[in-house]
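Below is a complete specimen:
___
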Amino acid sequence: MKSPMLRRTVSLLAVMVVLLALAAAAVVALNLRGEDALPDPPLTFDATPQQIERGRYLALAGNCAGCHTTRGGAAYAGGLGIETPFGTVYAGNLTPDEGTGIGSWSAAQFWRALHNGRSKDGRLLYPAFPYPSFTQVTRADSDALYAWLRTVPAADAPNTPHKLRFPYDTQAALAVWRALSFTPGSFVADAARPAEWNRGAYLVNGLGHCIACHGPRNALGATEGERGLSGGSIPVERWYAPSLTSKREASVAGWEKQHVVDLLKTGTSPRASVMGPMADVVYRSTQYLSDDDLGAMATYLQQLPDSTPAPASTVPQRRDTGVMARGARVYDQRCAYCHGDAGQGQPGAYPALAGSRAVNMETPVNLIQAVRRGGFLPATAGNPRPYGMPPFGHLLDDEEIAAVLTYVRGAWGNDAAPVTLRETMRR
């Protein structure tokens, strides 16, 4: 006869097996939310010239080439490594090559990839491909994208295997992530808002996937949709995409609408300029959008709910006088020629540092990156010869970078926290 302890152990194991089975079934059910059976693929996909041109435009709006084209590589042939805290994900081949691209995919399978985050064979895709945003793309726009991609030159370019740490390299882990973090959806227009606002919401939250950079992420790397476009760190690259809802960071509420359009169209405006990852977005994507669509995006962004925090304190920041003196010397030697003795800048050329939101943001990571690596605006049709800031990382050490930024953030009426050596040493 079995001992009572053995019987209890067997019973406990049985309960655990049942619970694991139920959990697995729940994960499967959650991963099938919003999915319909794929129809049999039609024998042909007859696209109109208008549909193909529409797809070309939408590919620009989604900045598809930004991830799916390597420098010097064939257009849309994939291979670009996207670094994440969990490893590197490599973008796939979107050309119509039958063996290595999407040439054997149907329009419905392509739609499922955007809407549900599944590959042709049903395999779960990693959200470095931003299907949590692309799920809002309409079927008509998906078909137009598919039509356009079928016209680009086919490239025989096998997909590069992802390099992710265990357990993130397993479909099981991805299934759990999706169960916790992803629900397929569709864009639903707000009947109480005008058509222009709804168009802007569709572009910003869908194809534009702005939340992928400007949204905070949780420990599992999922964007926190309830916090919206309230700012987020861009993993590995060490840039910060500022909050689009805080007037202390990058909110455009209160701007002239044309200034927002100019910023997205040319990379610069009387109110601000772009650099870092956003410069690439303007260069590859938004400069090619129509004025109507840029105006719609501006309208939507200007009406985002305000999340500007109340001032934490009215007491001026305490500063080390020695650090400030050292920073002033570095500024005089390296910065004043362009940005002015009083941080006033030169309109149309070099941005003012006095009173600048970018200078006074809570986090100094973008300033550190700009000093170390340089700050470059995109070359666009509206600003073909932009001024840029050269890198100083080969001339200034970490202590000097911390000192000059501490000085800039504390001079001419600026009152942001000093920059520490520890912050500049983070690579």
Q: What stands out?
A: Residues 49-181 form one domain.
